[in-house]
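Hey, can you fold this one?
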Amino acid sequence: MANDKAPETFIPGMEQLEATPEVLRVLMAPITIEDALWKPAPDRFSVAEVLEHLSHIEGHCYRLRVERAVERDGAEWQDYDTTAWASAGQYSGRDPEDSFAHWEEQREDNLEYLKGLPPGAEARHGIHPVHGRITVSELVAAWAFHDLGHVRQIAELIRARRYYPRIGPYQREYRG
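Sure. Predicted structure:
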Protein backbone atom coordinates (compact mmCIF):
# COMPACT_ATOMS: atom_id res chain seq x y z
CA MET A 1 0.00 0.00 0.00
CA ALA A 2 1.15 3.49 -0.72
CA ASN A 3 2.33 5.65 2.12
CA ASP A 4 -0.16 8.52 2.57
CA LYS A 5 2.23 10.78 4.43
CA ALA A 6 4.57 12.50 2.05
CA PRO A 7 8.08 13.15 3.35
CA GLU A 8 9.80 16.40 2.46
CA THR A 9 11.15 14.73 -0.66
CA PHE A 10 9.48 11.57 -1.88
CA ILE A 11 11.10 9.42 -4.51
CA PRO A 12 9.41 6.18 -5.60
CA GLY A 13 11.15 3.29 -3.88
CA MET A 14 11.69 5.09 -0.59
CA GLU A 15 8.70 3.32 0.96
CA GLN A 16 10.38 -0.01 0.21
CA LEU A 17 13.67 1.21 1.66
CA GLU A 18 11.76 2.13 4.85
CA ALA A 19 10.02 -1.27 5.02
CA THR A 20 12.98 -3.56 4.38
CA PRO A 21 14.42 -3.54 7.94
CA GLU A 22 11.14 -4.77 9.43
CA VAL A 23 10.66 -7.36 6.67
CA LEU A 24 14.15 -8.73 7.36
CA ARG A 25 13.59 -8.73 11.12
CA VAL A 26 10.45 -10.85 10.68
CA LEU A 27 12.17 -13.25 8.28
CA MET A 28 15.20 -13.72 10.50
CA ALA A 29 13.40 -13.97 13.86
CA PRO A 30 13.30 -17.79 13.95
CA ILE A 31 16.80 -18.51 12.66
CA THR A 32 19.84 -19.56 14.66
CA ILE A 33 23.44 -18.49 14.13
CA GLU A 34 24.02 -21.86 12.45
CA ASP A 35 21.13 -21.14 10.07
CA ALA A 36 22.58 -17.71 9.30
CA LEU A 37 26.02 -19.15 8.51
CA TRP A 38 24.72 -22.06 6.40
CA LYS A 39 25.58 -21.97 2.70
CA PRO A 40 23.63 -24.08 0.21
CA ALA A 41 26.80 -24.43 -1.89
CA PRO A 42 30.39 -23.14 -1.65
CA ASP A 43 29.78 -20.50 -4.33
CA ARG A 44 26.50 -19.23 -2.81
CA PHE A 45 25.95 -16.66 -0.08
CA SER A 46 24.77 -17.46 3.43
CA VAL A 47 22.26 -15.21 5.20
CA ALA A 48 25.21 -13.76 7.15
CA GLU A 49 27.03 -12.92 3.91
CA VAL A 50 23.93 -11.34 2.40
CA LEU A 51 23.57 -9.17 5.50
CA GLU A 52 27.21 -8.07 5.30
CA HIS A 53 26.78 -7.36 1.58
CA LEU A 54 23.74 -5.20 2.37
CA SER A 55 25.69 -3.36 5.06
CA HIS A 56 28.69 -2.80 2.79
CA ILE A 57 26.75 -1.65 -0.25
CA GLU A 58 24.56 0.64 1.85
CA GLY A 59 27.60 2.68 2.80
CA HIS A 60 29.87 2.16 -0.19
CA CYS A 61 27.52 2.43 -3.12
CA TYR A 62 24.00 3.82 -2.99
CA ARG A 63 24.41 6.68 -0.53
CA LEU A 64 27.69 7.78 -2.08
CA ARG A 65 26.18 7.83 -5.55
CA VAL A 66 23.19 9.91 -4.45
CA GLU A 67 25.48 12.36 -2.65
CA ARG A 68 27.75 12.73 -5.66
CA ALA A 69 24.84 13.35 -8.04
CA VAL A 70 23.25 15.87 -5.68
CA GLU A 71 26.56 17.69 -5.11
CA ARG A 72 27.42 17.77 -8.82
CA ASP A 73 24.96 16.84 -11.52
CA GLY A 74 26.68 14.44 -13.90
CA ALA A 75 29.29 13.27 -11.38
CA GLU A 76 31.11 10.08 -12.26
CA TRP A 77 30.48 7.03 -10.11
CA GLN A 78 32.72 4.08 -9.44
CA ASP A 79 31.53 0.60 -10.33
CA TYR A 80 30.61 -1.64 -7.40
CA ASP A 81 31.81 -5.16 -8.23
CA THR A 82 30.06 -7.56 -5.86
CA THR A 83 32.03 -10.50 -7.20
CA ALA A 84 35.34 -8.78 -6.51
CA TRP A 85 34.27 -7.78 -3.00
CA ALA A 86 33.07 -11.34 -2.30
CA SER A 87 36.31 -12.82 -3.67
CA ALA A 88 38.29 -10.47 -1.43
CA GLY A 89 36.38 -11.86 1.58
CA GLN A 90 34.49 -8.64 2.35
CA TYR A 91 31.28 -10.50 3.14
CA SER A 92 32.74 -13.53 4.93
CA GLY A 93 33.49 -14.13 8.58
CA ARG A 94 31.25 -11.37 9.91
CA ASP A 95 28.80 -11.68 12.77
CA PRO A 96 25.32 -11.56 11.17
CA GLU A 97 23.83 -9.61 14.07
CA ASP A 98 26.58 -6.99 13.80
CA SER A 99 26.14 -6.77 10.03
CA PHE A 100 22.39 -6.34 10.36
CA ALA A 101 22.72 -3.73 13.13
CA HIS A 102 25.28 -1.75 11.09
CA TRP A 103 23.12 -1.94 7.97
CA GLU A 104 20.05 -0.85 9.92
CA GLU A 105 21.85 2.19 11.38
CA GLN A 106 23.07 3.19 7.93
CA ARG A 107 19.61 2.69 6.45
CA GLU A 108 18.06 4.97 9.04
CA ASP A 109 20.65 7.67 8.31
CA ASN A 110 20.21 7.21 4.57
CA LEU A 111 16.44 7.55 4.76
CA GLU A 112 16.78 10.78 6.73
CA TYR A 113 19.21 12.03 4.10
CA LEU A 114 16.89 11.06 1.23
CA LYS A 115 13.89 12.69 2.91
CA GLY A 116 15.86 15.91 3.26
CA LEU A 117 16.95 16.16 -0.35
CA PRO A 118 16.14 19.49 -1.99
CA PRO A 119 13.30 19.71 -4.49
CA GLY A 120 14.42 18.51 -7.90
CA ALA A 121 17.19 16.29 -6.55
CA GLU A 122 15.49 13.20 -7.98
CA ALA A 123 16.22 14.47 -11.50
CA ARG A 124 19.93 14.98 -10.91
CA HIS A 125 22.14 12.25 -12.27
CA GLY A 126 25.46 10.49 -12.10
CA ILE A 127 27.46 8.65 -14.71
CA HIS A 128 27.92 4.95 -14.06
CA PRO A 129 31.02 3.48 -15.79
CA VAL A 130 28.99 0.61 -17.27
CA HIS A 131 25.38 1.82 -17.43
CA GLY A 132 25.87 5.49 -18.24
CA ARG A 133 23.51 8.24 -17.09
CA ILE A 134 21.37 7.32 -14.06
CA THR A 135 19.10 9.75 -12.24
CA VAL A 136 18.73 9.83 -8.47
CA SER A 137 15.15 8.64 -8.95
CA GLU A 138 16.34 5.65 -11.00
CA LEU A 139 19.04 4.94 -8.42
CA VAL A 140 16.53 4.90 -5.55
CA ALA A 141 14.30 2.54 -7.56
CA ALA A 142 17.35 0.30 -8.17
CA TRP A 143 18.14 0.45 -4.44
CA ALA A 144 14.59 -0.76 -3.62
CA PHE A 145 14.85 -3.42 -6.33
CA HIS A 146 18.17 -4.55 -4.81
CA ASP A 147 16.56 -4.75 -1.35
CA LEU A 148 13.74 -6.94 -2.64
CA GLY A 149 16.17 -9.26 -4.41
CA HIS A 150 18.03 -9.86 -1.17
CA VAL A 151 14.82 -10.18 0.84
CA ARG A 152 13.85 -12.94 -1.58
CA GLN A 153 17.34 -14.47 -1.33
CA ILE A 154 17.24 -14.51 2.47
CA ALA A 155 13.71 -15.96 2.42
CA GLU A 156 14.87 -18.74 0.08
CA LEU A 157 17.88 -19.52 2.26
CA ILE A 158 15.69 -19.75 5.35
CA ARG A 159 13.15 -21.81 3.44
CA ALA A 160 15.81 -24.27 2.28
CA ARG A 161 17.68 -24.50 5.58
CA ARG A 162 14.98 -24.28 8.20
CA TYR A 163 11.80 -25.65 6.66
CA TYR A 164 12.54 -27.90 3.67
CA PRO A 165 14.17 -30.61 5.84
CA ARG A 166 11.06 -30.63 8.06
CA ILE A 167 8.28 -30.93 5.47
CA GLY A 168 8.44 -34.70 5.18
CA PRO A 169 6.71 -36.18 2.13
CA TYR A 170 6.01 -32.71 0.75
CA GLN A 171 9.68 -32.58 -0.27
CA ARG A 172 8.74 -34.53 -3.43
CA GLU A 173 6.66 -31.54 -4.56
CA TYR A 174 9.59 -29.13 -4.26
CA ARG A 175 12.43 -30.99 -5.97
CA GLY A 176 14.27 -29.75 -8.95
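The first strand starts at residue 75 and ends at 76. Let me know if you want another pass with a different chain boundary.
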